[in-house]
Design brief:
Layout: H1 3-11, H2 14-99, E1 104-109, E2 114-117, H3 119-125, H4 137-140, H5 143-159, E3 163-171, E4 174-186, E5 192-201, H6 203-224, E6 231-233, E7 239-242, H7 244-250, H8 254-257, H9 272-284, E8 289-298, E9 304-312
Antiparallel strand pairs: 1-2, 1-5, 3-4, 4-5, 6-7, 8-9
């Protein structure tokens, strides 16, 4: 608390007593520390004597762990390589099948980017897969054609089911007409992740059908406007076809005759016996044709006119 108190403390001899206490406490601490040190040496000696065994056991444990890890890595990579090989073989097989079909096949992601096409698609575009993968229809076709392709793709995503669409695309300066079957590819949760399109080039077929229609129209025009009257009946004698020439002669419309009127209604009374004689024989196969049979037809207004009839029976594959 200050010099005065310190002087008084020393004068009274209390400092010696304090030092004696300090020595006593210090001696006790030293004795305790010495006992602890002796015990520590004994314990360490025991640990040191067992350390080689512990070391070798630890080394063995580490070795087993390393061997196990190495084996697991080997097994994992072997399984992975085997799976990758099987996946590649499956992919190659799938691609090989696609490349040997005449249909144009493609798979696109939901954004419309191609990630698989077959050789037919390559031939259509006159390019390679590498130049198509990652691109969209807008990179490959005219905008109007690409708009139609994208619209049908979005419809597949919206409906999440197969749809049929017609698409027209220009390739190498020629317009191609495709009939496409498009369907979504679904993941394990039935969520669409891609769009598959299988398209058939119908250009030649449409051109052939167009020529056939033109030819049929010419034949039909010849049939309807021939100078002779033509009619066809079923086996019951009901008129199933008649040309315009005969309709004009008779004064009937096609709707009044076809599928409704028996052929005998076109005959006048004096020629009905001819129908009753010839028709059953034609139907039974007793006779197969008539040539130059004179008969009298009756018009809708009741007037009559003479005709010369030629009739030929037609049979199906079973002879009926």
């Amino acid at each position: 608390k200050g010099p005065q108190e310190a002087m008084l403390f020393i004068t009274e001899g209390r400092d010696k007593y304090l030092m004696s206490q300090i020595k006593t406490i210090t001696s006790g601490m030293l004795s305790e520390a010495d006992a602890n040190l002796t015990k520590l040496k004994t314990d360490n000696h025991s640990h040191i004597s067992h350390s080689p065994i512990t070391f070798y056991l630890l080394l063995l444990k580490i070795s087993i762990t390393v061997i196990t890890v190495v084996f697991l890595f080997f097994f994992y990579f072997r399984r992975r390589n085997k799976s990758e090989k099987a996946l590649k073989e499956s992919h190659d097989l799938f691609q090989n099948v696609l490349d040997h079909t005449s249909s144009v096949v493609s798979i696109k992601d939901l954004a419309g980017r191609y990630f698989l096409i077959n050789q037919a698609y390559e031939r259509l575009l006159d390019t390679t897969k590498e130049n198509v993968i990652g691109k969209t229809a807008y990179d490959l076709f005219a905008k109007s054609d690409a708009d139609k392709i994208r619209t049908s793709d979005l419809e597949v995503i919206r409906l999440q089911q197969q749809i049929k669409s017609e698409e027209f695309v220009m390739s190498n300066g020629e317009k191609h007409h495709f009939v496409s079957m498009k369907f979504p590819l679904l993941d394990a949760n039935h969520i669409p992740y891609a769009i598959c399109s299988i398209s058939t080039d119908e250009t030649d077929k449409l051109e052939t059908e167009h020529h056939l229609r033109e030819e049929m129209n010419r034949i039909l025009d010849l049939f309807n406007n021939a100078p002779c009257g033509y009619q066809a009946t079923d086996k019951n004698g009901i008129i199933i076809e008649i040309n315009e020439t005969l309709l004009k002669w008779l004064g009937y419309t096609r709707a009044e005759v076809v599928g409704k009127m028996p052929v005998k209604n076109l005959l006048s009374a004096e020629s009905l016996h001819q129908f009753a004689y010839y028709f059953p024989r034609i139907r039974s196969g007793e006779i197969k044709s008539l040539f130059d049979v004179e008969a009298v037809y009756q018009r809708k207004d009741g007037s009559k006119f003479a005709v010369v009839v030629n009739s030929i029976a037609q049979y199906d594959e079973e002879g009926n």
